[in-house]
Amino acid sequence: MRAQWFWFCIFGLLALFGTLYVLFAPCDTTPFLKYESSFVLYDRDGVLLSVFRSLEDSFSIPVALRDMGPWLPKIAVESEDQRFFKHRGVDILALGRALIQNLRAREIVSGASTITTQLVRLVYPRPRTLGAKLGEYILALRLERKLSKEAILEAYLNRVPLGGNIYGVEAASWYYFGKSAKDLTLLEAVSLVSLFPAPEKLRPDKNPEGFVHRRNVLLTQLFRRGLITKEEYDLYVRAKAPSPQGFPKSAYHAAVFLERTVSSCQVKSTLVSSIQTTFERVLWEAVTPLPEDITACGIVVENSTGHILAYVGNARFRENPKKAYIDCLQAPRSPGSALKPFVFARAFDRGLFVPSSIVADTPFGLGGNVPRNFDLGFRGPVSCEVALALSLNVPAVRIAQTLGLRDCLNLFQNLGFSYLTESEAFYGHSLVLGGCEVTPFELAQAYTALARLGEEISLVFCPEDSPLKKRIFSQGSAYMVATILADSSRFNPLPKKALPKPLCAFKTGTSYGLRDAWTVAYNPRYTVLVWFGDPKGLPHEELVGIRLAAPVALRMMEHLMQRKREWYKCPEDIEWREVCTISGKIASSFCEHRVLSPFLRNVSSFEVCDIHTPFRPLGRKEAAHFAITSPVPGRKYFLLPGNSTLRFPLKAEGGKGKIFWFVDGEYLGESPPEVPLFVSLPPGAHTILACDASGQSDTVTFTLETGAFARTRKDLGEMAP
Hints:
This protein is of the alpha+beta class. 33% of the residues lie in helices and 17% in strands. The protein has 22 helices and 24 strands. A 5-stranded antiparallel β-sheet has the order 7-6-14-13-12, sandwiched between helices. β13 and β14 (526-533) form a beta hairpin. The longest helix is centred in the N-terminal third of the chain and has 23 residues, at 2-24.
């Protein structure tokens, strides 16, 4: 008898210690709280822009329980485990009820799973056997000792499968309803929970009848328990099965860029969903009528913070994602004339030029290369303001020569153009004309130095990042460039007096051979960059900046400003002086035509006009008055019968050095002083411009007409030789 009690006690103690071990043994909660997450990109207001598959090839967006909304957790508990907050991981009452039902039916017709045991099964999948079930119960009891009910419910709702490769209620909310779980309505929350028992079988897109039946069963359960009213029940049971919205695919290339550069799986960016969507649509509409090899990219920057508000790496992504994977914003391209404003700003800062300074737009050779303007013409002496506004190549090269190519290259490198790794000799004078490579992203950042009146700011994707700032130009020189590039007559057909404030400054660029079309537009608030081109670098006749990229950039800027205009206040380092319109220098009392022009205080040269003087300077021979003597201004000339063109002498007197001749804006050649240059001209009105080596110029207009015979003696006098 004593031996029996001895062994009874031994087995009892073993059972007790075994039970205590089962219940109180250490439990590692890490696998339950660690999720395999998709990469998710949000805008600055929390709107989902893009979501990528996780490493396990699934879509999962873990969120906190508080971010699942008021309805979904409550309905999930009501559907899956009504006594969840009362049991300790295993519901004894449900277990007993299931046991009785299964014994009566002599088969498994009911289970006793709790949310905790289902979570265990999701983390540690096992075959559905009695032993596996017992193991789930034991681990569930341990888990409940370590984690709160809220933590367990959160882990379960972030892991529950909801059709295909979609896991968790947040990912499913976006896929089925196009919104976050916290924004789901009561009906939407019920619909999502209806998928829990058999997500693949009950998917609304594959089995709408089965889905509606299961959802209505759950609605009946909620109504009977008093969680919804009769009116709500009658309304909801008549609802159709939802059509899945799919995951958003906005800002795809921004998401790819961030996935590679940040460590977090969920990134709340500086992007603004409404601006991003509009920019994608505007660029898509622009590339749709173009050859399919041409695409576009663009970026919108908030100048005050450096925040990237929109990032479109490839406008063709909406059409064919597989062919539009290249992020053109990060690809090096030739900038064309888009670099010229930086050279002009540096020249203003060096005190070498001011906007009114005269520069020769006349041909000259550089080691056998003759730079020409985009229209293949020359304009003679022009101001820096006109040269930059019209993007003239020859004046830009002359200014770069004055600065020195080494200074220009240092400037570009300081602006952040990482592909400029060669010496100035390698690039030559083509450097200022775009004979180099920059990425659109780098160019947009460089233009913030102009948009922020001389201070460049680094571009950032994340609100918590602190952008770097550095001063590149003075406020005054950047203001001068902005004022020049804001000339509305270059593009806007409205008269300037109708626009008290410019919408923006903008600069176009077209690379050599028509391979890239650029426009960068900016004002105090925003910088907008647009690029069009062929990713393979092939030329297309459509790729001209002013025709293709400028309308898109200005349209986007109009959208951003919402019909409100903001412009820069004149900086304190600017002072305004009257200048002579002929010499571009400070006007003397003898200059008849004057305009106000900006100068940099204590930097710019204040040289006074030396063209208009009352007497001959001592020790210097007075220059003869420069004037065109042939043709006679305002005269009519007639072709002899049977001739389609007239070989006409162009002649000027006075001046210094060679005479450069322009007919109707096109350079036709040069001649020695007082020696005629013969040209063939067709009928019509013509404008002749001549300038000498010292910068003096004269212009005449005349008309060349056809006629059978001269009718008067006066006409005979005007008959062409």
